[in-house]
Amino acid sequence: MTGNFQIRAAATNAAGSESAAGIERALARRLRGVRVATTGHALFAFTLIGIGITGLVVTPQFASIWQSVPPGVPLRGALACLCALVSLACGAGLLLECCAAMASRVLFGALLSWLLLVKGYYIVTSPMVEGSYQSAGETAVLVAGAWVLYAWFTAGWDLARMPFAVGERGVRLARGLYALALIAFGLSHFVYLNLTAPLVPAWLPAHVFWAYFTGGAYLAAAAALLTGVLARLAAALSALQMGLFTALVWMPLAAAGRLTTGQWSELGVSWALTAAAWVVADSFRGTPWLASGRR
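Below the sequence we write its predicted structure tokens.
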């Protein structure tokens, strides 16, 4: 039935005394014909499509979210093309009801593998460099967004063999991974203050204050998500902060034509992080904004 995966996603996150079956029936009437589960889902899918197209156009370079491949890796051009194709195919698949489960499964597996094998390489080789964790945190946010969609859309085989990774348990694990990424982001604002403060828009006063404030905000959001205290609010505000960083820092530079090649990549990453964070924030639908305690 059209709209099944949207209904399943909403039912997974439903709160209160109303049964999931009742919520599914209600949403079936309201979401008939809708092809996406949430706004974040749509934004993330279209972002992946854009990243895939970009990666194919600039091959053999890696698209923004697939960078940091260690030197010496063979067949870099082929790997870059493969990453771009995964982004494009999975992004498109997430928008098709018949393909959403498979697309979310492939995307989650690909991003998780990238986090462990590529970003993990830098953590192992440079464990005392905070930038290694910052970079891994970026991929972890993408993994968390993909994981939420995977937990929503899959059932059957995945539920029987990996019950911890799907459904409500999978969503909770994805939120935990997202929180760990926010810790890395927050710490980087303090460790790399000399790089963060200059990024604050010129029209804002007290650049150092805003660098510290936004870093502290990420750490506070991580604490809220890990403890369950004001978790929905924290998820939404952290996604908003990523979006504001994209809009206030990178967008004006792009509009003025002053972005370097590396900064264009940063813009792509920042946009993708915002989209993935939005998916995580959407996973709290049905949870009161000011709720305290794990659900």
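The CA atoms of residues 197 and 207 lie 5 Å apart.
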